[in-house]
Amino acid sequence: DDQPVWSFQARGLDGVSAPHASIGEMAADYVAAARAQCAHGPYFLGALCVGAFVVAEMARLLRAAGEEVLPLLLLDPPNRVLARTAAHADVERVAGRMKARRAQGRIAGPFEDPRYLAAAIATAAAFNDAVALHRPQPYDGAVYVLSSRARMQGVADPLDLRRIFTGRLKRYEVGTTHGDALDPRNPVFAATLRRCVDLIHGAARTRPPAESLRQAL
Predict the structure, then answer these.
(1) Residue 94: how many CB atoms within 10 A of its CB?
(2) pLDDT of 178-202, one tens digit each?
(3) Alpha helices of the chain — where are they, by DSSP H?
(4) Long-range pairs for 155-158 at CB < 8 Å and ≥24 separation?
(5) Residue 96 burial by CB count (10 A; 0-12/13-18/19+): exposed, middle or buried?
C-alpha cells in the first residue's frame, strides 16, 4: 500500500493512435511519460512478462541521459525474445483469449465494444511483431526476477535471460505456471514480491549523494 505505481498503456488502444512499431519507440515514449511525471530519478522500473525487453530499453535510455535506475523488477519474463506465432496471427483466437482473461479479472477493458476489441487486437499484433523484430542490447544493471518453474526449467535455455541482463541478477521461483507465478493470492509470489520491493527500496536508501555520484562518474 505504501508503493505508488504508474503504468504505461500501449499506444493504439484508443483506436485512433497507431500502435508502436518497435520496442525502441515504446521505450522512448514511456521514458518521456515517466519523466513528465518525475523529471529525475532514481527510477524504480518493473515489467510483466515480455515487457521485460521494453523496460531494459527504458533503463538504458534513462542511464544514457545521466539518470539513476534502481534494480529492475521483472515478473516471469520469457527467457528469450519470441517470434510471432500462428496463434498470435489468428484474430479469433486472440479475441477469445482476451475475453477469457477479462472474464477472469486478469485484464481490464470494454471488450464487449467491437471497436475497442478491434483496437486491442491490432495493438497486440503490433506488439508481437515489435518483439519478434527486437534485438536486445545487454543491460548491466541489477535485476530481480520472479519466475515460474515452467520458465526456469522450460525448453528455452534459462540462461538466455542472463545474456540480456548481464549485471547482478537474482531469480526466484514463485510458482509452477505463468498464471500461478503472477497470482497475488499465491503466498510465495506475494512474499517474494514484498522482499524484492524492500531490497530495491534499500538500494535507493544506500545510494551515494548526488554530488558523490557525479564525482564517481
Answers:
(1) 19
(2) 888 988 889 999 999 999 999 999 9
(3) 23-37, 51-64, 86-89, 91-103, 114-133, 149-152, 160-164, 178-181, 187-205, 210-216
(4) 156/78, 156/79, 156/80, 157/79, 157/80, 158/79
(5) exposed
- Contact in structure between 94 and 117 (CB atoms under 8 Å): no
Q: Can you say how many angstroms the Cα of residue 192 is from the centroid of all Cα atoms in its chain?
A: 17
Calculate the alpha carbon distances from 119 to 110, 145, 156, 173 in Å: 11, 31, 31, 35
Task: Kindly report, residue by residue over 88-144, the tens digit of the pLDDT.
Answer: 567 777 777 777 777 777 777 787 788 888 888 888 888 888 988 888 899 999 999
